[in-house]
Structures are given as C-alpha cells and as structure tokens.
Amino acid sequence: xxxxxxLTYSTKSDECLPLAEFAYNNSYQKSLEMAPFxxxxxxxxxxxxxxxxxxxxxxxxxxxxxxxxxxVKFIHENLKRAxxxxxxxxxxxxxxLVFEEGNHLYLRVSPMKGVHQFGVKGKLAxxxxxxxxxxxxxxxxxxxxxxPAHLAAVHDVFYVSQLxxxxxxxxxxxxxxxxxxxxxxxxxxxxxxxxxxxxxxTRRRTINFYKVQWCNHSEEEATWEQEEYLKTKYPDxxxxxxxxxxxxxx
Length: 250
What we know:
Elements: H1 2-9, H2 17-25, H3 36-41, H4 62-92, E1 104-108, E2 116-117, E3 120-121, E4 128-137, E5 142-146, E6 157-159, E7 163-165, E8 191-201, E9 206-214, E10 223-226, H5 227-233, E11 246-248
Parallel strand pairs: 8-11
Antiparallel strand pairs: 1-4, 1-7, 2-3, 4-5, 5-6, 8-9, 9-10
C-alpha cells in the first residue's frame, strides 16, 4: 500500500500517509472479518463518506457495550482460525532438527545490554557463538553442550530451536579479544610471511607475485598479491625472494 502511494504520488507521498492510514483502518481484513477500526471501537467508522446516507440516529449506551463484547468474542474466534490456517502453511515446510552426539553446533544468543562481542554491543553483536560439541541428547528436542570455562555459569542444556549445525569445525582458534575492530566492523589485515613466489612476464616488464599468509588466517587462506602492492601498503614487510621462481604464462 505504501509502495503504491509512493509510485503514484511521487514527491507528495508523505502527504498521502493519513489517507493511507484511513484506508487501511477502514478496509476489510480476512483474519478479523471486519475492519480494524470496527474491531477496536466496536462500531463502524462514520465518516463524511457515509454521513449523508439516510438512516435513523443511534444512541450509544449499554447496547454498544454488549455489541462490542460480542464482536470481541467473534474476533477472537476469527484470529484462532487464522492462526490455525497459518500454522498449517508453516508446518508444510517445517522439518524436525535432529543432531547426533559428537556433532558441533552454534548456539544462538540474544543481545545483552552492556555486553561487548567483537568490539560491538547490542543488535550489532553476533547472533551465534561457538561451535560447541554435543555430549548428550536430553530428549527429542534438547541437547547438552560442552561449554567453555567462561560459560560455566550457563545451563548447558538447550532447546533445539536455539541451535544451528556447524558444517565445518574450524581447526584454528582465533582470540577475538586481540583483534582491533574499527567502527565500521572491519579490521586491518597484516601480512605474516610469504609462502611462495611467482613471476608474470609481459612485453615491457616482469611482475612479481607473492603468496602471503595474513595474521589470524591459516595457510590455506593465503592470497596472491603483487610486489608493488605489498611495498606500497606494507613498506616494513620484508619480501624476500625464494630460490625457486615459477614463471606464469602471459
């Protein structure tokens, strides 16, 4: 509805928000089987659009209260039916989560006030921590995890909805407290050592490439970088050549 207003009225779309709100509150809702205004106040909204219609004047009193109570019951029944219908749609795509002992799982955590993770706190903090190893299955929907020492005060049995399977257990442990996080949630990578060297010959010059291992990264995550880039970005880094140089084809 808001998108239609923005596309139709362009720069004047903000002036149409009250009209959009009016249209929404007085439109029939399938889940309520009435308009939201009627569900909230127990009567239909009388506006200049229907005040000119002929009819008898109505005095509001006990009849209005009785009618509102009946409508509330009616709305509750409609909401239950709508909830049951939506649940049936969700159950069609839902599958049970089953894990085995020895698997590793990520644990979902809620943002805690005042707690910093990776240098940030609140909604920007990571949603999952771990991975942790399953040491016992406590029923069909609960698992006991092997938690580290700093989480000893946390109960080690968790419901299956709080868990996510870890497809690959990282072999290298990185101490995140030693990483300096920038305000934009990035950190500066620094080269540690050179693993290999290659050359690419062109018509005018020969370009040296180095396979660089970065800090907080394994050798499998090393990348090929040009010598010129390394000398410009990291002038203090020593790029010693290897005894064996492989020449790349142009």
